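Hi support team,

I've been running sequence recovery on a batch of backbones for a student project. Most finish fine, but this one hangs at about 90% for roughly twenty minutes before it completes. I'm not sure whether the input is malformed or the queue is just slow. I've pasted the structure tokens below so you can try to reproduce it. Let me know if you need the job ID as well.

Thanks,
M.K.
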């Protein structure tokens, strides 16, 4: 560690936020140039949609999406057309600001006319997606999965998926969206940073209970109910690989412009956070990809209004320590020297 700045070459550079080439001529950097831009909601939607046009059956794990404001007329027209062909179709849509994180600015609508076009979308582009109305519930609650994926290299493409991840739960029992409950974020949005503020949020010392659990504990429950967990894993692996394949062409362009071939430079690796939702039929759907997933292993507990303290979180520790340990083993610079 270099708390006061780096003077010597070293094996692994671990940057906080994004790749920046501060005259790093050797070693390995834990970020790819351009990754932060590539996984923003609009860029990711565009990349996946390009593949959906080419391989519709292979890329059916990403909800139908439109980019606002530019595709607003298209969104209105397509929804009207689908409603005309199937009058019983009563969709819900979720609007996500492009640069938003931690659930910031997300809201649900029933009709395109409900989009808040008052300047916010003009200055703040967004993606609107078909909302997945039939999620798998555990204890009557909706949850999503955060899986950690190590992109070890682009050429050749080398991807590792951590065997365990986090399941992050809503804090109010799920009901299908209606005009009355659309605004109930604790029922519809799984974001940890939103639900932590709910009175029903349960901090647990066990990895099997509470509002944040290990993904493996969910798999155990599903398996005991007779679900085909092997197939679920292979579907998830396929989703991860195909998503990264969709991002790879542009990532290579960024890479070559920052680290041209022949110029000495670092090699890159990166831990990505994949957010996945399971549908009732156990089909995994990609919600988003995070270029900078939190590696904190403690959580904030509110002692009194506005007063927080940091408490160790056994669930985060169990999953994230393993992710970082195995990442360092996989990129181990000593291996090559032996």
């Amino acid at each position: 560690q270099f708390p006061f700045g780096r003077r010597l070459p070293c094996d692994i550079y671990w940057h906080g936020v994004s790749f920046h080439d501060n005259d790093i001529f050797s070693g390995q950097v834990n970020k790819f140039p351009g990754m932060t831009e590539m996984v923003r909601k609009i860029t990711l939607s565009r990349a996946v949609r390009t593949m959906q046009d080419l391989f519709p059956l292979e890329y059916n794990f990403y909800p139908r999406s439109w980019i606002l404001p530019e595709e607003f007329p298209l969104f209105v027209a397509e929804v009207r057309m689908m409603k005309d062909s199937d009058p019983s179709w009563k969709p819900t849509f979720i609007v996500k600001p492009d640069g938003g994180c931690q659930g910031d600015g997300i809201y649900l609508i029933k009709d395109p006319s409900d989009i808040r076009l008052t300047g916010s979308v003009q200055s703040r582009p967004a993606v609107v997606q078909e909302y997945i109305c039939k999620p798998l519930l555990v204890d009557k609650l909706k949850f999503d999965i955060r899986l950690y994926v190590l992109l070890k290299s682009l050429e050749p493409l080398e991807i590792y998926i951590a065997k365990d991840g986090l399941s992050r739960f809503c804090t109010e029992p799920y009901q299908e969206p209606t005009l009355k409950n659309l605004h109930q974020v604790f029922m519809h949005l799984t974001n940890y940073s939103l639900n932590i503020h709910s009175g029903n949020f349960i901090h647990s010392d066990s990895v099997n209970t509470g509002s944040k659990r290990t993904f493996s504990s969910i798999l155990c429950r599903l398996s005991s109910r007779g679900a085909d967990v092997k197939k679920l894993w292979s579907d998830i692996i396929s989703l991860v690989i195909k998503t990264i394949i969709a991002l790879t062409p542009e990532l290579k362009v960024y890479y070559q412009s920052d680290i041209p071939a022949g110029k000495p430079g670092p090699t890159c690796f990166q831990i990505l956070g994949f957010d996945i939702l399971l549908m009732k039929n156990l089909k995994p759907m990609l919600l988003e990809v995070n270029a900078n997933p939190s590696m904190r292993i403690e959580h904030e507990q509110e002692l009194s209004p506005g007063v927080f303290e940091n408490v160790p979180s056994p669930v985060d520790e169990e999953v994230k320590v393993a992710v970082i340990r195995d990442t360092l083993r996989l990129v181990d610079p000593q291996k090559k020297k032996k």
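--
Follow-up from support: It reproduced on our side and the slowdown came from queue contention, not your input. Residues 64-131 form a domain with the Dna Ligase; domain 1 fold (CATH 3.30.1490). No action needed from you.
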